[in-house]
UniProtKB/TrEMBL annotation:
Record lineage: Bacteria, Pseudomonadati, Pseudomonadota, Gammaproteobacteria, Enterobacterales
Record SUPFAM superfamilies: cAMP-binding domain-like
Signal peptide (from-to): none
UniProt protein name: IprA winged helix-turn-helix domain-containing protein
Pfam families for this protein: HTH_46
Domain IprA winged helix-turn-helix: 154-208
Domain of life: Bacteria
Ranges in a coiled coil: none
């Protein structure tokens, strides 16, 4: 176990706890399931054969898009879990009105698990605390992201998204076009994005 100076016990951050929760769920759920591989730009379907699924992403990066206008609402890199919120509507037979869809930003590998099977395993392996941790981390992430984007000027939005992109694994960053990454999340014009990127490059803040 990690320790700090003075012998204090190391306390994992929210991000580390979230990763531990995801890996624990992957370990218990990914058994006797064949992986699916898709290329960048393809849609990840949580409905397979008219049945809702949870998707356990083991490789790659994805983005969550608003159905009405395709604006990117969120994103993430493996390992991750998709479909937890949509599963609620399926389990309790609510009207299906999901307003988002998932697209691969890079080549992705994932394991689709029927919702009913996922819930059964979660009950048997006591995974609900991990699931709650993941959902709380996701809410905190979206709150922080909104704070950095809503009501901010173009420069501040682009800066926040470049920092977000930098947090991706290097292998994923090389597959992503920075200009498209920013435009899909802000709706800013290409000319305005390129102007800010050019200014940042001229100031030696970024390399393109």
């Amino acid at each position: 176990m990690k320790q700090l100076n003075g012998g204090n016990v190391y306390r994992p951050t929210g991000k580390e706890k979230n990763l531990q929760a995801i890996l624990n769920i992957h370990q218990h759920v990914i058994q006797n399931i064949s992986p699916v591989t898709i290329t960048a730009g393809k849609t990840l379907d949580i409905k397979i054969d008219n049945q809702s699924h949870i998707l356990l992403i083991t490789k790659g990066a994805i983005k969550v898009c608003r159905r009405i206008d395709s604006i990117v609402m969120g994103c993430g890199v493996s390992p991750m879990i998709l479909g937890l919120v949509d599963a609620y509507a399926d389990l309790y037979q609510l009207e299906e009105n999901s307003d988002v869809f998932f697209i691969a930003e890079t080549t992705c590998e994932y394991y689709p698990v029927p919702v009913k099977d996922f819930v059964k395993i979660a009950d048997e392996k006591h995974l609900w605390r991990d699931i709650s941790n993941i959902l709380m981390h996701r809410i905190a992430f979206m709150t922080n992201r909104d704070r950095n984007l809503i009501g901010q000027d173009a420069y501040s939005q682009i800066k926040a998204l470049l920092l977000e992109l930098w947090s991706y694994p290097e292998s994923s960053r090389f597959e992503i076009n920075a200009q498209n990454f920013i435009q899909q999340r802000t709706g800013l014009s290409r000319s305005r994005i390129m102007q800010v990127l050019s200014e940042l490059k001229a100031g030696n803040y970024i390399k393109i």
